[in-house]
Design brief:
Number of domains of chain A: 2
CATH superfamily of the largest domain in chain A: Type I PLP-dependent aspartate aminotransferase-like (Major domain)
Order of helices and strands of chain A: HEHHEHEHEEEEHEEHEHHHEEHEEEH
Oligomer: homodimer
Radius of gyration of chain A: 21 Å
Chain lengths: 398, 398
């Protein structure tokens, strides 16, 4: 624990945001910071949760402990709706209280003796949980990296896909696509390379697909679109950014039967054991909501909210581009990755906060290769996004 | 992972139950097995959850990520209602998706290099998570114990409280009172001994109070009733058995400011970091339900359900006593601990299942000192409890 650097990124941003508000009580602060949903959950989905809550007060509707792996109809619906044609069995799907929580349970499964690689930059939970379970050495301040973690640089120079020839072998590869924070989605041929690389090295890919629904081009939505992925990849997914469930809490993890340790033992058996020992199932009310998300009506309503956020994303991309910034992401993810060459990310963060009262996320918080970038999240109501666009233009227009 | 013995206890029981049902499709199986609530949640509590679900579909009511530590009003209400007069601050309370999940997060906090002690018998999650994070050696089949875990024998001979003079020093002491499975609640003087023992040894007590609301005598409801406990104890609690939230999922953990590692660093800071990194807050709908549980109306309604289960417990205690069995627990917990001298717990389990179609829990599943006992859970509707009582009398009457 002592190895962890000060402050998990988002609590640290919240701290700075609060300090700014205290200093500027009249400022109308807009958040493009943490990727937090802002739009109401569609009624067909909340109605299902209301109905479930109500039924728990009746003898007929009450139920206690559910299966640790999730309710059968929900597992089946995820298999059918999210993985149609990909041959994922409902028994390979483990429903959870969210992808972040599943990542820590996966780390518990892997234990301290494995080595891990992450995209650089990447969502901080991979590295922080890895440090926490003891897979790493200390923090090397000269390179801003933890010893023993493989940092796979993803920058505009390599189309945000690591040069696998230069990546040393690691047991576990965390790979998020569409990526948080860069917004880059790996193409089919890139993912084929990744799967081949994992197979060659006997590595397990943990593929984070939390933003797959935001994709606009024809990049794969799931690692299981790649032949052979069932032998090397675990995939996590989440209702957080799909249906505004960031507070409701619901996600899932897929562990295919064919994924085996080097001794031939199925990983799914161990993951099942972790779920049964360290978890007691996602909230039954949240699961009722998840099932409604996957119904025809819920799915349509949910995608309309996603489209709304996608329009927000286009507004932000246009804003930064019109100001002459090198701007990445945005097409396949609700994140815009903006380059400020030669500048320190936290300085840019501070400037935008102080002068425009807008919270962003400093790129370096996601890894050393994020230095010189900031991430703007497109979650927000339209009025705020338009106001943010205006303030950014006022601040940065030449 | 490989060290873990076959099957977490309750999934194993479920497996045997299902096999029995397949063999006896017409049998009306009654469960006194897993401690799973059966009675509806009172309307004042489900209404609050419905209301919260509904509000998430509105612009005014929607909220995304909540604080990882839980919503402020709920933390304040737990401090006030559960820890009134015990000076627990709301900032010392971390709201979670349940005590079982918190135990695995505590194990993640402690890491592989600590030594642990558990009551024998005890709730299996302490030992299983300890094995999982690598704190133990292998399973020693001759003594049915994991190497390096301290098993503190709790039997009728020592009033279910360990002889601390013979307990070797361990870093962490898991202590559940009222105990699952024995139903025994430690007295004030016993807990004073425990706190003094931890202080002497520089150990941390993890005190599981999940059944405190079932207490009928004047034993302490919280470890913090004992002077000095703030320096040595973490306490976990849960709405599962209080309000029938086994499926809704809500619990909490208290980490007092004064609890320090040997180097003087506050444990609360590290636990906060674990919660922020490995968890994303309990479901906001469940939290709305928890807040309603602690209101005057909710608290009253919730206690009426608890009283119902307490009456169930009395029926089961009377049944086993009338049959001449040495019967323990039941006064302060919804569990009845029944002795079958000289017999194997799984054999008794099988006999009761096969001949009376009743699922119990074999005592040896909770640790070697549980051998020769079975645990009967008093959660169930009254008709089933009375029918179980009748069948047990038919089976065991001389």
């Amino acid at each position: 624990m002592a190895k962890l650097q000060a402050g998990y990124l988002f609590p640290e941003i919240a701290r700075r945001r609060n300090a700014h508000i205290q200093k500027n009580p009249d400022a109308k602060v807009i958040s493009l910071g943490i990727g937090d949903t802002t739009e109401p959950i569609p009624v067909p989905i909340t109605s299902a949760m209301e109905e479930k809550a109500r039924s728990l007060s009746t003898s007929e509707g009450y139920s206690g402990y559910g299966a640790e792996q999730g309710e059968k109809p929900l597992r089946a619906a995820i298999a059918k709706r999210i993985y149609s044609d990909l041959n994922i069995k409902e028994t390979e799907i483990f429903v959870s209280d969210g992808a972040k929580c599943d990542i820590s349970r996966l780390q518990l499964l892997f234990g301290p003796d494995v080595s891990v690689a992450v995209q650089d930059p990447s969502y901080p939970a991979y590295v922080d949980t890895s440090v926490m379970v003891g897979q790493t050495g200390g923090f090397l301040t000269n390179v801003q990296q933890y010893d023993k973690i493989g940092y796979m640089k993803c920058t505009p120079d390599n189309d945000f896909f690591p040069d696998l020839k230069s990546v040393p072998r690691k047991d576990i590869i965390y790979f998020c696509s569409p990526n948080n924070p860069t917004g880059a989605a790996a193409s089919r041929s890139q993912l084929e390379q990744l799967v081949a690389f994992a197979k060659e090295n006997g590595s397990i890919i943990v593929y984070d697909s939390a933003y797959a629904i935001y994709m606009s081009d024809d990049s794969p939505r799931s690692i299981y679109e790649i032949p052979g992925a069932r032998q090397v990849a675990i995939e996590t997914g989440s209702f957080s950014k799909y249906a505004g469930f960031t507070g409701v809490r619901l996600g899932w993890t897929v562990v295919p039967d064919e994924l085996l340790y080097s001794d031939g033992f199925p990983v799914i058996n161990d993951f099942n054991r972790v779920m049964c020992t360290c978890f007691n199932g996602a909230s039954n009310i949240a699961q009722a909501g998840g099932l409604a998300c996957l119904s025809t009506e819920g799915w349509k309503a949910m995608n309309e909210v996603v489209d709304f956020y996608k329009e927000n994303t286009r507004i932000l991309v246009d804003t930064f581009k019109s100001l002459g910034f090198n701007t990445f992401g945005g097409t396949n993810a609700p994140y815009v990755w903006v380059q400020f060459p030669g500048r320190n990310s936290w300085d840019v963060f501070a400037e935008i906060l102080e002068k425009a009262h807008i919270v962003t996320t400093p790129g370096s918080g996601f890894g050393p290769a994020g230095e010189g970038f900031i991430r703007a999240s497109a979650f927000g109501n339209r009025k705020n996004i338009l106001e943010a666009s205006k303030r950014l233009k006022d601040l940065f227009a030449k």
